[in-house]
Amino acid sequence: MQISIIGLNQSGKTTLFRALSGKGKTTEGIAIVKVPDERIDRLSEIFNPKKTTYATIEFKDAKIELDNSGAFTSKTIGEIRNADALCIVVRSFKNDTVPHPKGSIDPLRDFKEIEEELIITDLLQIEKRLNRLNREAKQKSTEYKILEKLKRFLDDESPLNQAEITDGDKKLVSGFKFLTLKPFIVIINSDENNSIDDNPLINYLKNRSYEYLKIYAKIEEEISQLPIEDQRVFMEDIGIKESIIDRLIKKSYEVVNLISFLTAGEDEVRAWTIKKGSTAVEAAKKIHSDIARGFIRAEVVHYEDFIREGSFKACKGKGFLRLEGKDYIVKDGDIINYRFNV
Question: Which residues on adjacent β-strands are paired with residue 322?
Fold first, then answer.
């Protein structure tokens, strides 16, 4: 899964990326970071495995370029087209040494500018496709009807993630990779003094039901560069239980509709990433295709039940450890052991 970080110049986009980079490995503008998971921490304490593996997310520091008209260049569109979600950084801090390109700080104006460019990009893409379908006399096709409906929505200056689109229609247009159909996470990059009024932006985001976080990217960057133990001490000193960066990582995982199922034993404790609603056999493919092909049953116990009872044996004795078939819908936090034969 990849999240593209976008924002106007001097918004703090790259500062945020550097803070994320301190949480994982970085290569060519992509930070691969672990998804914090207290369940994996606890299971590792219990099993003391040879290896512990967390779920991961990729964050990409997208290079934003504008053409002479102020629109996204084709290179920029290509940078963010394949992302699963967009993390939009909006400036809400004063710094005379880093002047805003527009000469003033206005978070709502800046966010609307980015949102508008994303809408226009999708609109142009739809118009181009509709023109081709018209030339091919395919006005009665299902694709044409869906694209016309989406175009009307964009014409009203609304992003597609605000439209009521069926799962079937989403699947039909998935190949277009529309930018505004992706989930948005808005980062309000503020300062310690909260010197800018960002309430107009926050109200706008709430009306759109967008996920947002208010952060101090510069401080988060400084925290991320400290040794782990020093990070904990520093956060305790300023009364923070969880860094905003960790919250952003978790929020990114949620907005793209992902969950984790777990495997636990002496060899490895691991979180496996799957789409919400996946079946037991689909989850098995994440581990190995042979397990899915030779699937017999899945031994399942939920993490909370395991922790409460203290062992697989105790869970089995009380009926919390059960056998499930291929069509079982895996839940977030399920601990699964697969029985298979190949």
Answer: 300
